[in-house]
């Protein structure tokens, strides 16, 4: 269920924010310039990476709220008025929400120096929602088809816009494509979870490289996200022990 993936991605973002803020809040006037301090504390390559980390965390959360809302109400929206203007705004909005979320996580991936950045970039580029966004949400009349070596144009098929369905038409090749938005958004959120998991684990290992106990503590905490992704619930007792509740069909 996509709702489980949403919960897990929120968990990753909150855990990462706690990881970053724990270091940032230790800065005092005695430490001098904040950017110099935070670069050292987070083991950043460049001091300006701090600003990009903050922006990326906010973008990931904001875009996730938008994508969640869309998956709950679809193209029709919560009011259920049959208004094509609203449907187009919701379509273009959710497609570009996935794009800025992908870019934010790629940015954190780069800053954290996670291995195989090119492989991840390739996986993101190959997401169907990325392709649909490029064809409908950003390059509708100037889409560069590198394989064919020409420029194409695309438009949504208006009468199909309802629920989680969005067909589109290639006015250059006259090809009609059907899209299940729930499926392609699910694929997107699944990959975003994978990326954030790698980012968090690499960041923890880098920041607390000399503190194995802290690394173990934080990595155990982030393992909760795996349970959430599988539809389970994680509870903690007052002494810190974890209780896992899972469902079986």
State the secondary-structure class.
Answer: mainly alpha
Helix count from the secondary structure assignment: 9
The major beta sheet can be summarized as: 3 strands, antiparallel
N-to-C order of helices and strands: HHHHHHEEEEEHHHEE
Strand order of the largest sheet: 3-4-5
Which bin fits the share of residues in helices? 55-70%
Mean pLDDT: 92
Q: DSSP strand (E) fraction?
A: 5-15%
Q: What report would you give on this structure?
A:
The protein is mainly alpha-helical and 249 residues long. It has one domain (2-245). 59% of the residues lie in helices and 9% in strands. The protein has helices at 2-24, 34-41, 49-73, 84-111, 117-125, 128-138, 181-207, 212-222, 224-229, and strands at residues 143-145, 150-152, 154-156, 168-170, 176-177, 233-236, 242-245. It has a 3-stranded antiparallel β-sheet with strand order 3-4-5, with no helix packed on it. Strands 1-2 form a two-stranded antiparallel ribbon. The chain has a two-stranded antiparallel sheet with strand order 6-7. The longest helix has 28 residues, at 84-111. The two termini are 13 Å apart. 29% of the residues are buried.
Index terms:
single chain; 249 residues; mainly alpha; 3-stranded antiparallel beta sheet; two-stranded antiparallel sheet; 9 helices; 7 strands
What's the arrangement of secondary structure elements?
Blueprint: H1 2-24, H2 34-41, H3 49-73, H4 84-111, H5 117-125, H6 128-138, E1 143-145, E2 150-152, E3 154-156, E4 168-170, E5 176-177, H7 181-207, H8 212-222, H9 224-229, E6 233-236, E7 242-245
Antiparallel strand pairs: 1-2, 3-4, 4-5, 6-7
